[in-house]
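User: Please look over both lines:
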Amino acid sequence: MCLDSTAVDDDSVFWAIRALETVKLRIVGTDRVWITLAIFCFTLFLVLARPRGLHESWATLAGGILMLVFGCTTLGQSMTTVLSGIDVLLFLLALMVYSALLDRSGFFDWSAAWSVRLAGGNTRTLYRNVFLVGAVITALLSLDTTAVVLTPAVVAFVSKLRLKELPFLLACAFIANTGSLLLPVSNLTNLIFQSQFHLGFGRFVQVMFFPQAIALGLNYVIFRILFRRDLALDFDARLVPSPSEEIRDRPFFLAALGSLGFVLIGYFVGSIAGIPPYLIAFSACALLGGVGLLRKRIGGGLLHEISWPLFPFVVGLFVVVRAFENLPFLDLATQFLARHRSDVTGSVIATSLASGLGSNLVNNIPAALVSEAALHASAGNSPSLYAALIGCNVGPNLTVFGSLATMLVISSARKRGIDVSAATFFKVGLITMPIVLVSATLALLLEAPFLFQTR
């Protein structure tokens, strides 16, 4: 009986596989484009809607498996794509560990407390300080650190000061995106482009400094105007602990400050010496982690603070987008960019607007991967590469699902009882994002004759 049962089971499995292969061949042979688009849209729906609390990582993994099952991409293509981004994944891991160590040192709470102390009871000055702190943390430690670590600290002290949370919460959400242009390490999209196009660290900063300054400055001015009434009231700084009270262990805290200097210098030196950024970040983790262990400030619980599901999320997304790259649309985009390569102004504006629009339609990471694929064969080391990043970094400030950082900020706020609706975010984004995006793109065009060999 057991043998017969096994035989039946094996036979059923065999015919199920044959049936699936037959369906796959019929579908892929006739409607590969539509199937790829359907799986792509289905994956994005799962990521954004999260039915029954489904985690984003399961959504992209399911999409990647479906792409492989229906032959929209091959296992070889997928493995090549994932392996090409291994440096990006390693750096993400190092950055998340480093951010967790900094949080244990009290660095983020200390920064927030100094923002309050230096404001002197003036809410407008406090708002400026939050912008500056958020911009620095986003640049050095990535936009996800601003979303996950800084935002709760800001919301906590704003609540203690009895101020309106919405302006400060939206500041964190927008800074996380707008402030991620400056360094390759500031955003996953930047890391993808740096890895694929071999962009030097110093060169990246040289090109992006002016657009970054314009984007942040305009974002701040617009928000000051939009929230002028909420920022008019003064506050009592004594309601928040002093910066010194936020330092839990002085040697560990001083080591955290020193490690930040090491990381910043290391990024530039490493770029010249050919040292990958993730090695610099892991070195900082080792140094700060060693001090933390000696001071008994960290333990095994630190690993629980790492957002491990982010890695399968990115891997699954790589596979889904690799299948999308097999469609003819990318060939058309590549041909368009190649034909208009000599028209620097037209190609830069078109690339920036297209990647910005795409980021709001399908999230900025898929938009960046698609842009990278379209630009790879036609752009070289041209202004269009940086224009695509401006679109993918600044562009998501229109919809709540434009970037993962925005979704993390909104999620963090809801855990604290603060609900920011998609309509509210869109209303603010509709006023802010187009002005900032276009201005940053024009800043890139203004400097292009001096930084690129344009004709």
The two ends are 80 Å apart (CA to CA). Residues 201 and 268 are 6 Å apart (CA to CA). The chain has 19 helices and no strands.
